[in-house]
Structure of PgmB protein:
Amino acid sequence: MQGVLFDLDGVITDTARFHFKAWSRLAKEKLNVTLPASFESDLKGISRIDSMNRILKFAGMKNEYTAEEVNELAQTKNELYLNEISKLTQADILPGIENLLDELAANHVKLSVASASKNAPFILEKLGLKQQFDAIANPAKVKHGKPAPDIFIEAANQIHLTPQQCVGIEDAKAGVEAIKAAGAVAVGVGDANELHEADSVVGNTSELTYSVLKQAFEK
Ligand code: G6P
Ligand code: MG
């Protein structure tokens, strides 16, 4: 294991509730629909524009907006979301993550971020973690979002490794699929049934340690 490819939302910090709050408000105010609670988990790992399209489909409004209008709606959601995440601090780092990053660095493992979020650099800055990573893959540079492997391949590239030399960590089903499609070893965080495609699953981030990742890699 020479590198670890980290998802951000749900692995490093818990932003799913902020995404859901922003999407819910947008859906209510602009589309006059109420999103069911299941959308919080269904939209995990899904890019901003793909999420917007799923919501329009749910609202039965997929054909009512031009591509430009869909972009504007997604932009409005992002403004609502940015307002939510402006309050993030080091206290919002999920349990065990700071320790894990220290352990990995001490073992000369390279660290790269493979998030679909265009806000990843801003969030890492807020959490005080930006310097800990060797690279942050830019989701604007890749063609296909998760579950396609693109962002994990790019994250490995950025640290000059192949996905086969890396472990990927994900909390979303689409993300685990993306790691596997890239050819890296997948460690899931969350529900073992939902993430059954992962090579190894832990219940929460406090169980993520260097030795757990190394064991998953060597299995
Ligand atoms: C992550 C989240 C998704 C989000 C996506 C894009 O994958 O899990 O819920 O839609 O990033 O985030 P962004 O900050 O670019 O809108
Ligand atoms: Mg995630």
